[in-house]
Design a protein that fits this description.
Blueprint (H helix, E strand, L loop, with lengths): L20 H15 L6 H8 L3 H5 L5 H13 L12 H18 L1 H8 L5 H17 L4 H29 L4 H10 L7 H14 L3 H16 L6
Helix pairs in contact: 1-2, 1-4, 5-6, 5-7, 5-8, 5-11, 6-8, 7-8, 8-11
């Protein structure tokens, strides 16, 4: 006679009336960081909290509203430099580093936010500060607008590239396969790559250091000829 499989333990539910928006956002961020943006569903969030799905809907209208709230919570952690605390280039560098660190620390949140427009006071304050710094650095209106977009494209794109690359290399044997492929390259067919492979691998592994190298070059290109105001 086949044995009856043991019953799965009941889901541990949250104490009655303990659910609130802060707990929901904490759980959403935990879910994103642990399981990725693809696992971020209302049902998955409810399971993370130990409540029924409708209990979450009693605080937020849906996933999009929670996504916006998570975005604002994360953006609020970026410490903008005190206004007028230094030269515009240094302040711009600090702002971009803050955005980069935020998105590399929360890569799944980055993927979620990349496809949604930035909303709320924190996003507006960040954009306004960057534009003001670019104007203060001596750029005209059109150049300041283009420079702001270029800096954000580089910052967000770098964070996305680095986090996805790190995730790929964490797969079993992935790093060793990459190293083996580079070591097997024909120096006659790819002389520059073979010659510079050790330096290239070091640069690719520098993370924030590599981002800063590119950011400094970009800032020099954008602001180098601009008169300081």
């Amino acid at each position: 006679m086949p044995s009856t499989p043991p019953a799965s333990p009941p889901r541990r539910r949250a104490p009655r009336n303990s659910l609130n928006p802060d707990r929901i956002l904490d759980a959403a961020l935990t879910l994103l960081d642990r399981d990725g943006a693809e696992a971020f569903t209302m049902r998955g969030l409810a399971q993370q909290l130990g409540v029924g799905t409708m209990a979450v809907y009693s605080h937020f209208r849906g996933k999009d509203e929670i996504s916006d709230a998570v975005a604002q919570r994360l953006l609020d952690t970026i410490e903008l430099p005190r206004e007028g605390s230094g030269d515009p280039r240094g302040e711009l560098r600090e702002v971009c580093l803050g955005v980069y660190r935020l998105f590399t620390e929360h890569p799944s949140a980055l993927e979620l936010l990349a496809g949604r427009p930035l909303r709320g006071d924190d996003a507006i304050a960040l954009i306004d500060r960057m534009l003001a710094l670019l104007v203060r650095a001596g750029l005209g209106p059109q150049d300041a607008a283009h420079a702001h977009i270029a800096l954000m494209q580089y910052t967000v794109g770098s964070a996305l590239w680095n986090t996805r690359r790190a995730r790929t290399l964490c797969q079993d044997g992935a790093r060793d396969r990459v190293l083996a492929k580079i070591a097997a390259l024909d120096a006659g067919a790819y002389p520059a790559l073979v010659s510079l492979a050790p330096d290239l691998l070091c640069a690719r592994n520098e993370g924030t250091g590599q981002f800063e190298y590119g950011l400094d070059g970009l800032l020099r290109g954008l602001l180098g000829a601009a008169p300081q105001v």
